[in-house]
Amino acid sequence: MTRISRRARRILLAGGCLALASATASAEDFDPRHGDVKALVNEVSAQGVDRAWLERAMDEATFSQQVLDAMSGAAEYHLTWHEYRDIFLGEERIAKGVRFIDQHQDAFERAQHDYQVPPEIIAAILGVETRYGEVTGDHRVLDSLSTLAFHHGSRGGFFRGELAAFLEIAYEQGVEPGELEGSYAGAMGYPQFIPTSYRAYAVDFNGDGARNLWTDPVDAIGSVGNYFAEHRWQGDSPIYLDAEGPAEPPASIEFNQAQKPYVSVSKLRDAGITPEDALSPETRVIPLALELADGHYRYRLGLDNFYVITRYNHSYLYAMAVTELAEAIAEARGEPTNWFESMATESEERP
């Protein structure tokens, strides 16, 4: 496996977001008695969260310049496909994915039965996000979300909603908000759900009465499956198909958009891009042009399930890394990847 460059590592670690407004924080920035923080406390307490508990939590929150720096850093950089792929497709991560499925086989089988999502897909999400729960973040979620909610110049409103959801979750589950750690953007646990996703899609998959994504791999497996099902994952349908195309991506086609399939096969054919498997000319796909280390491009056509993966992270690079890691795990397990091959079979059998 090719070693990734320092530049690639710097890009990945920096995260990605918009520029931030400069801010100087004081010790009283998150005082629950004042201004916007008081308004947040009022809002969350109206949802049934104890006001005194909320005030104690916000009084404990600490401003983090490190969080703001991390959020702004990656706007200057761009990863190519081969750089991004090399980060996530190492032999160790593949082997750990195989072991993780073996260790939690019952949970993966139930998730596939209940949500129609193959074990390798769920495992690949957890593998890309946190190395199967090994690296879940070392920022206090309370500090990250408070900092972003009240000091992010362009997305403060979004993070204010995440902070409110986080406080509600912590209160409902009886955990101290200051003890929970996650990413600099407030993503949490094995699957790195942001709080609103946690509230909407987390499930109690082991039946112990709690939805615990921080330390319970079984709940995480079920919750990722539920997330995909709620975003209309289509059973054993494939994620993408390979295609042939010119040396350079044609300018007439907009590639690599994390959108619902938006370009017809007939339009792609007109531009010189031909699916390797038979598809109706009216079929819409997500055209992907993946830059390789030697400067050449690999063409693929993302289908509806590829779009579902981009709902987890709105990046074609992320979705393709998850897909290839899942394929590699399935190959290492000796399992057929019907979710990759079935479209070709269906197309060939279609009258």
UniProtKB/TrEMBL annotation:
The gene is mltB. InterPro entries: Lysozyme-like_dom_sf, Lytic_transglycosylase_MltB, MltB-like, SLT_2. This is Lytic murein transglycosylase B. The active site is at E129. The keyword Signal applies. GO terms for molecular function: peptidoglycan lytic transglycosylase activity. The keyword Lipid metabolism does not apply. Keywords: Signal. One of its GO terms (biological process) is peptidoglycan catabolic process. Residues 1-27 form the signal peptide. NCBIfam families: MltB (TIGR02282). Residues 37-327 form the Transglycosylase SLT domain. It comes from Halomonas eurihalina. Pfam families: SLT_2. PANTHER family: MEMBRANE-BOUND LYTIC MUREIN TRANSGLYCOSYLASE B.
